[in-house]
Amino acid sequence: MDLKIEDVDDLCTGAAFLGAGGGGDPYIGGLMVKEELRAGRRIRILDPDEIDDDLLVIPTAMMGAPTVLLEKIPSGDEPLRALQAVETALGRRADATMPTEVGGINSTIPLFVGARLGLPVIDADGQGRAFPELQMETFAIEGIAGTPMGIADEKGDFATIRTEDHHRMEWIARGITIRMGGTAYFANYPMRGAEVKRASVKHTLTLARRIGAIIRTARARRIDPFEELETFLATTSYGVARRIFSGKITDLDRQTDRGFTLGQVTISPDGPGADCVIAFQNENLSAKADGALLAIVPDIITVLDSETAAPITNETLRYGQRVTVMAVGVPPIMRSERALRQFGPAAFGLADTYVPLGPF
Amino acid sequence: MKIGVDVGGTNTDAVILDGHGVRGWRKTPTTADVQSGIVAAISAALADAGAQAEDVDCVMIGTTQFTNAVIERRALQQVGVIRLALPATSAIPPLTDWPDDLVQAVGRHVTLVAGGYEFDGREIAPLDERAISKAAREWKAQGLKAAAVTSVFSPMNGTMERRAAEIILNEAPDLAVSLSGELGQFGLLPRENSTIINAALAGLATRVVGAFRAALKDLGLTVPLFISQNDGTLMRVEDVERYPVLTFASGPTNSMRGAAHLAGMGDAMVVDIGGTTSDIGMLRNGFPRQSTHFVDVGGVKTNFRMPDVLAVGLGGGSIIRDGGRRIGPDSVGYELTRRALCFGGDTLTATDIAVAGGWADVGDAVHLQGIGRDTIAAARTEMQRLIAANVEKMKTEARDLPLLVVGGGAILVDWDVPTASEVVRPAYASVANAVGAAIAQVSGEVETVVSITEANRAQVLDDARAEARRNAVSAGAIEASVEIIEVEQVPISYLPGNPSRLRVKAVGDLPV
Known about the structure:
Chain A: Pfam families: S-Me-THD_C, S-Me-THD_N. The complex is a heterodimer of chains A (360) and B (512). Chain A is an alpha+beta fold and 360 residues long. Chain A is built from eleven helices and 17 strands. In chain A, strand 12 and strand 13 (276-281) form a beta hairpin. The model of chain A has no long low-confidence stretch (mean pLDDT 93). Chain B folds into four domains: 2-69 and 206-248, 2-Layer Sandwich (Nucleotidyltransferase, domain 5), CATH 3.30.420.40; 79-200, Rossmann fold; 265-428, Nucleotidyltransferase, domain 5 (2-Layer Sandwich), CATH 3.30.420; 440-508. Chain B has a nine-stranded mixed β-sheet with strand order 3-2-1-4-9-10-21-23-22, with helices on both faces. In chain B, strands 11, 12, 13, 16, 19 and 20 form a six-stranded mixed β-sheet that branches. In chain B, strands 6-5-7-8 form a four-stranded parallel β-sheet, sandwiched between helices. Classes of the chains: A alpha+beta (360), B alpha/beta (512).
């Protein structure tokens, strides 16, 4: 299947939805992809269930501060150079690329790489949403080596990283990103088709596009977008989605610590009742009302405009916005014990135990 | 005394304000030369107030001339576009995602050169001065009159943009050069878009500002002249010549602030009813609530915030159908006084309903005897429903607020709105826009990226506040009246040293 230019905006909206408040605004990435398609290049999307077991897949993405990306747009060569660094280290050319993270801007980088290098893009990723760190991947949980990893900037500088451990890979790459000017582009977790089938969250590019299309068209079709999202997501591997709160933003506390945006947003209901407090570390981690847990990571907590159902990233939250909070379950591969060690509540320093989002 | 003027697409309104409120006003048609319309409106308003030119302390003008030029793709110049950024940013060149007709209007004279800054102030690359000279020579040869310069992170450091302007002017001294760093705000693409549009308006800006000045001269007014900008504050007329784009959202801002002033209320909903649409917005402390997203102007993403207004298809010229059950969204617009029944025309409009119902008095009710009671009642109910539902939609708090009704179409409303605590149609509602221009303050702004720690936070914020105050004073504010109205600190994630984007804004009164 080929990605069409008219699908790009929907895919970006859906990627912002799956970003759970983080992941960076996909706007810039969406523009890059549209430019490639306008120039006549092709983006072929492959179903992970249908690929050859020995296909070499090298995922690509960007890391760093989304706010820097808004000023310093890439040259476009960075992710290509990162991928080529991995190819050199492996002594073999990639047969395909794929996202490491479907939430936010990183849904778009592999599409751009695919267009530029003529590589197909696998319809799957390693997070099923957005997470802040490189070891927070289903690939890592399933025992895929993160390195050799290539990381590159717009100046032509690149590095090849080899570590024994996924956390060390994150630590070293984060340091390089800062030296590269706050944003960097990378390729890591090189793997075979058989490993993609075992270790990825499947069909997430398609999922993002479908979510975006629902949000775009619901109003025109006079259908409640929230209801339709709930109905649709229940039919996917995510299993369940439901509105957990709606009201108006009445407080917003944001700080940086250890290189992350930490804080919480308070939403007050229209009528009487307890406020909803969402804690975030780049992405939304937990939502509580009156101390009772409404949803918690790794389940997706996403804040939507009550009027349009447009996803609102944490950088653009503002006092007075009328919002609806939706929680979405995650596929079984992300709820295993090993998965929860990598990106469950404890991995973010939360004391709460994971309670999977149920239907009601 | 102050004079507030609103130069709209259809009407030019003038009001005379003194410490006690509106002393005189006049609504006149906007003229093709702009100038004679302003002269007519101001002199009639002065006569209405029984005032003389020498009683006037300053003149404030709000105008939609520049917004309309972009929307209608008219009076725009070709622009030489230069971006200081290589090797970064080439994945998305300037003018990407612009509508084709607007690209045609500004041309595709685009150059990317080495330069720009990193977030921490280092250079991405040294500025490629020779490439800039070469581009400027080409633009000169092509007869271009305007140029737009954008550098990565220029809101933080504008040195490279200013150096590029020097080089361009050295090669082509007649070029009007717009610098993105002076248009503020982070976000390279929207800022660059605004800068290019600004440059495209340079010629029109000179003509319009010339018309404003000439109008004042004709009237014998030798007082300071200010122009309304997006955020409801004023800029000096010489700044408008350089930055016409800063006037873009001033229309809705002025009418909402004018409504607040006329009604003496700070927290309220406002509906500004024009000929074709009604704009509904919300006031808090006398200022409109801003939209959370950057706005599109003429199909291009800019870096301006506008008041969050919802346009509803109800205006004085809205066409009434189905025995009053359907209103608009089409309208007879500026032809109201020719096509509406009450003016002897052949089209049933919302204004006709208000006149036939006996709560408005324009035109001649004699033409309206054929309109049935049922039609009037149905149309009235439908207008009421439209406003009530959309006021509810725009309200961000649970309690009901007063609804202020202003604009030329304010006469449509004599009914209650169930979603508002009361409906207020202040005196001079039809010229709220010009009143908003007259009461505006001047502002000063600071936007920067700084490392904020617990130890230095107080000092950093104090420094920024002081700089914003200085900027307000240099824009013309009385020092004692300056206050800080906005402090926004947004952390930049994933980076050590706690860098934050800091924006501080101060406003103050003009000496009158």
